[in-house]
Amino acid sequence: MRQGPLAGRYPAVAAMVAFALIPYLVLSAALQPISPIIADQLGMSTKAMSLTSGMANAGYALGTVLSVQLAQHLPQRRLLIAYAALLVVGSVLAAAARSAGPFIAGHILQGLCTSLLLIAAVPPLIIGYPASKLRLTAIILNLSIFGAVALGPVIGGIQADAHAWRPLFWVIAAIAVAALALSTLTFEDSPPADRSAPVDPVGVALAGAGCLAAFYGASTLVTHRFLDLSTFLPLIGGLVLIVALMVHQYRARRPILMVRPLASTFPVAGISVAMCTAAAGVSATGLTVAMLLDRYSPLHAGLLFLPEFGAAAVTAVVFAAVFRTRLLHYFALTGLVLLSAGIVVIEGVIPPTEARALIGSALIGVGLGASVAPALFIAGFSVRNYALQRVFAIVELLRAVAAFMIAPILLHVATTVGHSEASGIRTALWICFGLSAGGALLAISLYTLGGVRPPTPVMERWFAGERPAWDSPSLLAAIRRRAARRGARARARTEP
User: What is the CATH number of the domain that holds 301?
Assistant: First the structure.
């Protein structure tokens, strides 16, 4: 078996995963203040810039499904190197672009390749090393994903204040080159996951068409009304196709995604928490950045979001301390509560004062870091570890749809609803609050109706691949048990 000189070295593999995830996730949060500068220098309209971002996000969502399908039939580590190479190509194209075409192609490649790398690289880092490494892995993943997102507004503000964007994109390209170098140095040739698995063109087509249509419709809201046919039809049609994908995967005998095994109490609660947190947190951050940019310089506005990164870093450490205990479940709910509190703080004064922005951004950072990562593991611990790649794929697909599609819709609400801009923003923020608070209530209800208290994961059997880390009760198990007991008593009374 061919191997690179750093094969199996945990620090090198962990660094490779971090460098693979950071570039696009930083950009996705940093683009808002620098988008006008990019559009002006490359001759792009506001609509074209919005569509570019939307299609990159669509690529990110689609890549989650595509990565799993390709991994079934092609050598997985070779694919990883190919994804990293394409990420370098996309990053260089975007950074060196002198016109709209190369920038658009490069940024879309960045979105697609990031999710391809995430699904291909993260599960092996989790289950490919001893359980003693899992706490450190949890910190690395939390910081790489949510720390990068939290740092985005600060970096974007710094670049916008300098009226530049290429330095950021060249740094991103350099990080992508480092990811490619490390993926080569840590290479361990591995076979396809399952050559006998069927190719599912219907599933890939539904994912592709659904993501492209939904994100296209959401992106056009910068220049169109919600009920315009060119916006409404692709947006709703795309969502219908994504729902059809879930139904198709649930009913398929050998699906790409693990939908049926996740249809129980803990995974459904975890996925619901991830979706609600992503939708509320990303939207609230975007709305807050927009308000602050109207009041302060880009650098000043960006620095007001620095507590979000600090909070995300602290949360990552706390997460590593609790994720092997029953507190993992409570930690996710606590994150939603704190996210809701952060939204209320921001909403109290429109636009927010410096103090409110600092406190609100810190609470939002805690909410994002404390909810989404635990939700991923709550779903992952509910199945055997060999299915982790497919579990992460479905969670990331739904999280991406919630985060990147809801945010443009709520930004549209903020500019079109109410008698003033302040009232529109307040309405959008209250919707964010409803999403976060509703997610917490939904998760609590699922646990209650499942008739179960949060358990402690049994890591030994999960790492051994023997069983899930815990047994997740079926949905509405408590109601079903009560109904079964009533039925048994009724039959007993009628028997002679």
Answer: 1.20.1250.20
- 375 in the same domain as 461: yes
- Count other C-beta atoms under 10 Å from residue 47's C-beta: 15
SS (H, E, C) 216-229: HHHHHHHCCCCCCH
Question: What is the distance in angstroms between the CA of the first residue and the CA of the last residue of the chain?
Answer: 72
pLDDT digits (tens, 9 = 90+) for 127-161: 888 888 988 998 888 888 878 888 889 999 999 99
Residues 188 and 320 in one domain: no
Nearest-angstrom CA–CA distance, 358 and 346: 9
* Structural domain for 9, as ranges: 1-195
Closest CA to 222 of 414, 27, 449: 414
pTM of the entire predicted model? 0.93
pLDDT at residue 174 in the model = 96
Under-50 pLDDT residues of the chain: none
Q: Residue 297 burial by CB count (10 A; 0-12/13-18/19+): exposed, middle or buried?
A: middle
Residue 245: the pLDDT is 95
Q: Rounded mean pLDDT of the chain?
A: 91
Can you read off the two tokens belonging to residue 408?
């443009």
Four-residue CA torsion sign, 483, 489, 491, 493: negative
- Cα–Cα dist 223/463, whole Å: 50
Give the tokens for residue 496. Answer: 């002679």
- Do the Cβ atoms of 32 and 289 come closer than 8 Å? yes
Residues 182 and 225 in one domain: no
Check whether residue 169 and residue 289 sit in a common domain: no
DSSP 261: G
Angle at 315 between CA 305 and CA 389, to 5 degrees: 105
Cross-strand pairs, 184? none
Q: Is residue 56 within 8 Å of residue 186, measured between CB atoms?
A: no
Phi-psi region of 188 (alpha: psi -120 to 50; beta: other; left: phi over 0): beta
* Residue 366 near residue 315 (C-beta atoms within 8 A): yes
Residue-wise pLDDT for 295-337, tens only, equals 899 999 999 989 988 888 889 889 988 988 999 999 999 999 9
- Provide the domain count of the chain: 3
Q: What's residue 495's pLDDT?
A: 65
Q: What are phi and psi of 264, to 5 degrees?
A: -140, 180
Pair 55, 230: CB distance under 8 Å: no
Distance CA 103, CA 232 (A): 27
Please tell me the number of Cα atoms within 13 Å of 283 on its side-chain side: 36
| Exposed e or buried b per residue across 255-272, where buried means at least 16 C-beta atoms within 10 angstroms of its C-beta | bbbbbebbebbbbbbbbb
